Amino acid sequence: METNKTKEREYVDITLNYYNVNAEAFCSGTQNAAFSEHQDIFLKCLPPKASILDFGCGSGRDSKAFLLKGYDVEAIDGSEELCRLASECIGKEVKCCKFQELEAENLYDGIWACASMLHLNMTDLEAVMKRIDGALKPSGILYTSFKYGECEGFRNGRYFNDMTEEKMKLLLKRLKTFKIEKMWRTSDVRPGRSEEKWLNLLLRTKKE
């Protein structure tokens, strides 16, 4: 009999396997994407030299930008190959860790989860966001982004959980741990993909 845990491992492992197999191509497609506007919106909410967790760092693009600006950055990703390539990019070890394994408590001023938690189903997303709330310092900030829409399931070899404003508000109502600082839609910044829309969020933990 197939258990929920088995199903969970399957969808997570299939997605991580995609990134392990396609790590170099993924990094080359995202490494130089113009993302400074989003980064600056996030950084303006943080104190100088803040501690940041890059949660699903991918190519390491954003970790590198934060490090160059003097922030204290820790980066993790669930894909071993992406961790290897990102470590080379930022000159610092990237820890291989699944989102569900986050165990930090009151450690980070900000958590940056750019186009990463979109690979979690709703049950796991809710559980992981509770872990993020625990890992943030009081009044800490989370940036996260999702492909815009209602679809949930596999496409292009990965599991995606698309998001709308209404869907996110319902999730936050269940969680009761974050308040919305900013929620906005943007177009994909990668060349030739501007028709793809994203939902971006700045969320502040309610704990004091």
TrEMBL record:
InterPro entries: Methyltransf_25, SAM-dependent_MTases_sf
Superkingdom, taxonomy of origin: Bacteria
Xref: Pfam families: Methyltransf_25
CDD domains in UniProt: AdoMet_MTases
Any one biological process term the GO annotation gives: methylation
UniProt GO molecular function: methyltransferase activity
Location of the Methyltransferase domain: 52-140
Record bears the keyword Oxidoreductase: no
Keywords for this protein: Methyltransferase, Transferase
Record protein name field: Methyltransferase family protein
Organism: Hungatella effluvii
High-level lineage: Bacteria, Bacillati, Bacillota, Clostridia, Lachnospirales
